Amino acid sequence: MEKAAGSLSAGGSYPQKNAEILSSQYGINLFLAGLLLTFAWAVHAVGISKSHLLSYLITLMLVQLLWMLWYLCRSCTQRRLIRDKDTHAGARWLKCGITLFAVITLILDSFKIGYYVDFSNCLSPTEGIFPVTHAAHTILQVYFLWCHAKDIIQSFKTLERFGVIHSVFTNLLLWTNGVLTESKHQLNEHKERLITLGFGNITIVLDDHAPQCNCTTTTPCSIFSQGIYYLYPFNIEYHILASTMLYVLWKNIGREVEHHQQPKTPFKFHGITVGMIFGLIVLTSTIAIVVVYLIQIGGSKIKSELALTMFYLHAIFVLALMCTAGVVALLIYRLEDRSLDNSKNPARKLDAELLVGTAAGSWLLSWGSILAIICAQAHPKYTWYNLPYSILVIIEKYIQNLFIIESIHREQEKANDDVKTLRIVTVSRGSTLSLSPSYKEIYNGRASQDIGELPCLFRGSIYARERDGGGGDNEETSQRDGSGIQSASEFSLCSQSSVADNKRRILKNIAAFLFLCNLSLWIPPAFGCRPEYDNGLEEIVFGFEPWIIVVNLAMPFSIFYRMHSAASLFEVNCKT
């Protein structure tokens, strides 16, 4: 009988597994069709215009809007039902981050609307409809993610799988469209910079699909056209973050979760002053380097070479510091004996896969630069700095990935069970009542935090009183016979707690420092400071077109890696 029930249960999972496979194939085909349409527009394929691409994207966004509205309405009608939640998905800091990027994306949409109004005489109506639809899509999607990113869907599972996966690949296509548009703008500037460096033999004409008419108002047109490209990095990050959050929601459909209270991990500035100070120094210096780089590059050959040299030296110094910090953190982990949490967790698994997958973009560029330096016949002086820079990029990502992945898989430190039991006994006997936590606090893990906040000697005396029981006869006996044991226990607790606190403080400072360093290294490529484009050596060895294709494919992953690493390190800091 039990065997039959088991086979029935197993058979019941087949339709849902088939729905998962079918929905994933639907999403992949949706994405491939849009990807080919984007590529056809980029290379000026016959019969394909920008209006066709935008019409396809508008249709996808409208379908997603309808699905999100249906889901929100159904959730409102079932508000009283208790829903399962994935406590690891949709962290508050992640929602705040995507909201910030969404606000800037809305500013980008307003600029696009203004740009369309100024060039309305020669632009397709779809170029005006697209930013309006995109703005509505952005507002509703952010609201949806704030309210339902943690949901574990258990009803209408087949329909919901198709709706969520449609949303995932819609955001990926919008991300691809943003990356392509921003890359085309970067390529035009890149060609001008190479000419100033003396690479005048490049004769490729790059087309930016500019409108074939004059602007009705010159000043606003200039503001809109230039401002759009400075806002694209935030739009790109918004869509990739949205797609990852929606992917976790898709993986959670029909999932069975353990019902237990997860401890909250708020971010605290206390104890990370050193890491924040050094990180802010790196962030400030990086912003200054980027400003000087963008001013100097392309001005003349000497200025361009100085800008590249300055960038490489600064990046080498920062990467060396990050490698050192990562090695110290890993050594601390090797000194600890703590088990790893191997429970099923789609959000954590996706984080680890994205770290390794997107790091491949930087590794590809770094190995290309190393080969170019080795194979090139002529080496301008500034290109030699590219060699240690490329090697450090590879090593730093190795170390940082290992640190982050191990950190998010480590079980949180728990207080000694004997100490918590003794503190409960103390409460029941009425001694040190004001210092002992309630049972609810102990259950939620707050007792371990309170123990760590008490002075060490005071903690030891409380422990001794709890162990002795508080009775008069026991106190006299312990004073006569156990004074040596009490002193040893106090010293042992003090030394163990002190060492653990120091390790935790060092790890929190390292996580804070690496968090700010990754934000710093996200800024240069996101805002046009890309030496892979500008030093010219790779174009000589590999050819202009092949290297540009490699950079355009790898750079978006490299940019996303830094932002995703910063988000993961923020989580590590909260968890440590």
Which features characterize this protein?
576 residues; mainly alpha; 2 domains; globular; ion channel; membrane
Q: How is this fold's topology laid out?
A:
Blueprint: H1 2-42, H2 50-77, H3 92-118, H4 126-148, H5 157-196, H6 218-251, H7 273-296, H8 301-335, H9 346-375, H10 386-409, H11 417-429, H12 439-443, H13 446-453, H14 456-468, H15 472-481, H16 483-526, H17 531-534, H18 537-542, H19 544-575
Helix pairs in contact: 1-2, 1-5, 2-4, 2-5, 3-4, 3-6, 5-6, 7-8, 7-16, 8-10, 8-16, 9-10, 9-19, 10-19, 11-14, 14-16, 16-19
Helix content estimate? over 70%
State the end-to-end distance: 48 Å
Low-pLDDT segments, ≥5 res? 1-12, 415-472, 474-478
Give the number of DSSP strands.
Answer: 0
Structural class: mainly alpha
| Major pleated sheet | none
Question: Total domains, how many?
Answer: 2
> What is the CA-atom radius of gyration, in angstroms?
29 Å
| Average pLDDT figure | 77
Number of helices: 19
Strand % is under 5%
Would you mind describing this structure in some detail?
The chain is mostly helical and 576 residues long. The protein has 2 domains: 15-257, no CATH class; 270-411 and 498-575, no CATH class. It has 19 helices and no strands. The protein has helices spanning 2-42, 50-77, 92-118, 126-148, 157-196, 218-251, 273-296, 301-335, 346-375, 386-409, 417-429, 439-443, 446-453, 456-468, 472-481, 483-526, 531-534, 537-542, 544-575. The longest helix is centred in the last third of the chain and has 44 residues, at 483-526. It is found in: Cell membrane.
